[in-house]
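Thread amino acids onto this structure.
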């Protein structure tokens, strides 16, 4: 069975120079979609338990295993894609076609440098670059691979895959914060990303990320629907509460009460700030 380690200790060793140079909290493995069931059974046979319900149009699932003496379980994420299937036209075949054997192993492979950079950018976008580590990953790859990444070809692939807006948004934000990156690798397409922090711009940034980062109108509408009517597990994740066995209607009411409360609080703070001399 072919598999590709994503991020983790291999990524740290290969691109940061040491397996301990970049922190990691789980094990991410990419497999082919047709091998999902086989991989799941293999992971379960090693004592891992599935953490979340199966999501047909998602691109990964998580399993955890308690470690004696550790309050934090070991988590394995099995990936068969890098973005939600119904939010793009991205196919994994080119990634597998250009993957090469790792360390003389026949079935353990590594993504090409180009596809590694593509994956890391989309990973950063998925988290809206909400942590310095997403910036660091992208910057480190630019530093190490600037002469091995063809951004023109990457943008062409992203346009075909329906992920171009995500790629442009992510790199525009990173380059906007660190303009010296232009001296290493020139960005062929760049958006003006102003006012990501503070005031009403914070909410515009959320809307731009959550709903307007998609290349097609259909994909944006799907994401708006998913935000308005999320899965129960996603509701409690957003509420930062432990999952509860309650009806979907009650869960939605809790969610919108919390959203309304946050909106009113933010509006009050904005009005109060505007009225201060």
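Threaded sequence (277 positions):
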């Amino acid at each position: 069975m072919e598999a590709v380690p994503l991020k983790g200790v291999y990524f740290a060793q290969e691109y940061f120079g040491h397996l301990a140079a970049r922190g990691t909290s789980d094990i991410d493995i990419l497999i082919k979609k047709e091998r999902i069931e086989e991989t799941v059974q293999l992971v379960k046979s090693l004592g891992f338990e599935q953490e979340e319900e199966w999501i047909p149009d998602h691109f990964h699932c998580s399993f955890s295993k308690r470690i004696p003496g550790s309050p934090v379980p070991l988590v394995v994420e099995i990936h068969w894609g890098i973005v939600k299937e119904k939010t793009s036209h991205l196919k994994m075949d080119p990634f597998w076609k250009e993957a090469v054997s790792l360390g003389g192993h026949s079935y353990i492979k590594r993504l090409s440098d180009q596809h590694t950079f593509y994956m890391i950018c989309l990973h950063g976008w998925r988290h809206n670059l909400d942590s310095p580590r997403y910036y660091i990953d992208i910057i480190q790859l630019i530093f190490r691979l600037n002469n091995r990444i063809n951004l023109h070809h990457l943008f062409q692939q992203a346009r075909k895959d329906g992920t171009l807006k995500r790629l442009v948004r992510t790199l525009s934000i990173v380059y906007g914060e660190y303009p010296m990156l232009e001296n290493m690798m020139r960005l062929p397409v760049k958006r003006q990303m102003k006012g990501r922090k503070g005031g009403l711009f914070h909410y515009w940034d959320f809307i731009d990320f959550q709903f307007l980062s998609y290349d097609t109108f259909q994909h944006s509408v799907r994401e708006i629907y998913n935000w308005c009517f999320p899965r129960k597990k996603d509701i409690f994740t957003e509420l930062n509460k432990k999952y509860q066995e309650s009806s979907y209607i009650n869960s939605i009411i809790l969610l919108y009460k919390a959203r309304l409360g946050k909106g009113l609080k933010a509006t009050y703070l904005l009005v109060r700030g505007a009225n201060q001399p």
